Amino acid sequence: MGKAIDQIRELGAPPSMQGVRPAMPTSLTLVGAAAVLYLARDVFLPIAVALLLTFALAPVVAALRRIGLPRAFAVISTALITFTLIGIFSLIVTLQVAELAKNLPAYQSNIVMKVKDLKEAGSENGIIDRIGNVVERINREIDRPTTETPTSVESPKKDPLLVEIYSRDNPIQVLTNIIAPLVGPVAMAGLVVVVVIFMLLEREDLRDRFIRLAGFGDLHRTTEGLQDAGKRVGHYLLMQLIVNTTYGLPVAIGLWFIGIPNAMLWGLLAIVLRFVPYVGPVIAMVLPLFLSVAVDSGWSMLLWTAGLFVAMELVINNVVEPMLYGSKTGLSPLAIIVSAIFWAWIWGPVGLILSTPLTACLVVLGKHVPQFEFLQVLFGSDPVLAPHARLYQRLLAGDPDEATDQAEEILEEEYLVDYYGAVAMPALALAEQDRARGVMSDEQRLRVAASGMSLVSNLEDIAIEESQDDEDEDEKADTEGEPASQPIPDGEGMTILCVGGRGEIDDVSAAMLAQVLRAEGAAATALSFRQIEPANIRKLQTDSVDAIVVCFLNRDSIKHARFVVRRLKRVNIRARVGIVIWDTSADRAAGQRKADTSAEQVQGADFAASDMTTAAIEALTKRPSVPLAAPSKTKVRRRLVPQQTQ
């Protein structure tokens, strides 16, 4: 069994489709937490940065400890090297920005020339001139003074004289203006450094205190949650740094070859900005593109720069990222976008950079704390519905095309018999349960049945391919002298009828079984339950039929199945008649197989089964039919009594 069956075992087959909703106290807690994070962002922001850096540096400290270095030396050396690299990085960026600002006036003439060229190119149609004239006319109307009635002879007005007051610069004031903007960032950086060092030194003690406060009653779950969070966040930060460096260095080298000024600056900014999901790469690309327009008198540099960024994005997104970390953060793409918006609102640009690892921590919280399970459902990348539940939802919505797409994904690794047995039958069982409970209308029942039939029709090509593959495997086995290892017998030359038991949903299960039998080489036909009703059963053409299989999804249909068996055997005493009462309970879907339906439970049946594989094997097994039992003496006497009285 493959991924689909594994998901069935992990998620189970719940008898009800109940949702995961946050309780009211939990919702109030989240709202209160968001308000506190927003109002006290000056306190929590450095702590969050320090916590994430601790997650990233903890494996390095652990590696140094394993080679025998003292804890204090390992922590201080790791922090010293890390923050020295960050400081050098920041210094290079600052110097490059200052140099760029000094050279920007030299590029003004190129920008003016390109704007003039664009204006001349658009003047052929007069569009730019018209827009300019409209803007100029609006400005004149806005600037026109209001007309006033003159009361006396006015003297000619003179323009006011502009006066600019210069004051001698105060050295202390100048120094204050320079230092004041730097106090906040420097203080925050120093606080982050101190907090990171103490968190690394006291990591085990902080872990124990957190366990004591949050999960002392369940040490196993709390420990697993902490390890999962540290592993996800640390792995994400490390892999993202490698990906960004793999992106930034070639960008810097490529821009240097193209001739973009300050190529090192754009490469370093690309490394940092790619930590911002989706928006960061766009910003990293726009600035060099604008500079290429300002530097080059033509347009070739712009094209080369755009080509460089497009090529790097294709390589990083399709080769490097899937190879290094893929979706190891456990977040869905929509969750990454929503979390970026939320954390940017809470903590600004720094929150935008921290959004992905912080949301990964929330997903871990939802995975290990039942009260916050909805966080994992909202933001996680793991499927929240089992394959059979997803299929039933698509059938109920009347969307067989999407159901087919889901089936084809599973059938890339599974056989048709496995898919129908592990996914489709449990989905039909959910429909039958809803019908039996009275919560499904007739319109919905017919829609599910029609969508199921469309799904079977869409998968007919796959059944044909499996049939051809089986023939090729048999020929190969005959050539090599090895027996074919096929669990289901070959159905070549056999004619089988698969019939729905009591309703339209049973008809869908019969059509699926017939398709599986056709994939094994048999000439299998699916019939509706209406064709075995007493008024229509005599019209069946069963002379050349080897076996008739009647399918039921309702396990309370055994009594009705006995009547169906007797009717069919009276029509054709030579054909083998079997009953399939699908066992799709939660225990079976979870991997705990129940006892199959036995032929003794359905008197007169040649065979009985409860799963797709067993049903296919029994239908294709060539055995003589069991004759219908003669009526008992009691029944004979009951028939004769009215005749004697007459």
Tally of helical runs: 24
Query: Average pLDDT value?
Result: 76
Low-confidence stretches: 9-18, 475-486, 586-596
Task: Specify the structural class.
Answer: mainly alpha
Radius of gyration using CA atoms only: 38 Å
Which outline best applies? elongated
Secondary-structure element order, N to C: HHHHHHHHHHHHHHHHHHHEHEEHEHEHH
The N- to C-terminal Cα distance equals 66 Å
Q: If you had to describe this structure to a student in words, what would you say it looks like?
A:
The chain has 646 residues and is mainly alpha-helical. Helix content is 67%, strand content 4%. Strands 2-1-3-4-5 form a 5-stranded parallel β-sheet, with helices on both faces. α22 links the parallel β4 (576-581) and β5. α3 packs across α7. It is elongated.
Compact overview of the structure:
This protein is mainly alpha-helical. Helix content is 67%, strand content 4%.
